[in-house]
Amino acid sequence: MKVAILGKIHQDGLDYLKSQNVSITEINDFDDQNSLSKISDVEGIVIRTMHLGEEILSKCSKLKIVARHGVGYDNIDLDYLNKKKIALAITGQSNAVSVSEHVMTMMLALSKNIFASDKLTRSNGFEYKSDLQDFFELYEKNILILGFGRIGQALAKRCLGFEMEVLVYDPFIDNKKIISSGCKPVSKTQGFKIADYISIHLPLNKNTENLISDDEFKLFKKNLILINTARGGIVNESALYNALKSNKILGAGIDVFEQEPPTQNHKLFSLENIILTPHNSALTLECRKRMSLESCMNIINFINDKSSLNKNNIVNLSNLNF
To answer: Any long-range contacts for 245-248 (C-beta under 8 Å, 24+ apart)?
Structure first.
């Protein structure tokens, strides 16, 4: 079996493929057409963030499965895969802990005014601590979780540990499951009006693009902290900038951008009431190991041992002759 690795993955995944007698082609320079030509006869592809469209996929005549190193797959031409009956897998079990911890980190840092406090201390301003902007507890605050998949559920557990009131909006999840998890199902508008925190865990599609824009910022409380670790484009960046600049909301934590990497001197960079990270909420060492191994196992199990395959990881399962 031949497998192509598009982008660097942790050695654990590569070692697993080698243990299965797989021939591996690693490609890190996606502008090198000569390198990409080497994947024409692969049966599986592990991919990180590069765009994988019909131009490349159409040259892979033996391809059976594309395994995404992560959970989002907007960089992959799913329509083409469906047309050719090629499986698309995600690492559904790997990143919930890392991403939910990243959200908690952003919430706590913004709520506790950590960076301003650090700056004040380093500048010998210890005696001026009472002049710092008010900061807050998470205790008994309302958090609205948009999307109650694996990451949303992992976040809910952590928020409940802080004794927060956890509100959930997800029209695709049975309310009984939300309630049994200790959370409260709400409508989107209801949640927007009462939330102290909002954390987004939705895919980017035509229904979620610009889900939060100017009209939504008019509904939010002034003390709101908005966190997006899902996909850029779900929050309109211009609207977010205006809301933060005019103090319509308290703060934001953004791990994802409409354009990645963002442009130099992006206007959000000029604000102090926002934490920005480079789409790395799922890149803890532990998570990178899990995603590397799970993406490679998805390929081996799909091709060689479907009885061991986690079918929940196959995005387009219903479209396959399985």
So the answer is: 245/271, 247/222, 247/273, 248/217, 248/218, 248/220, 248/222
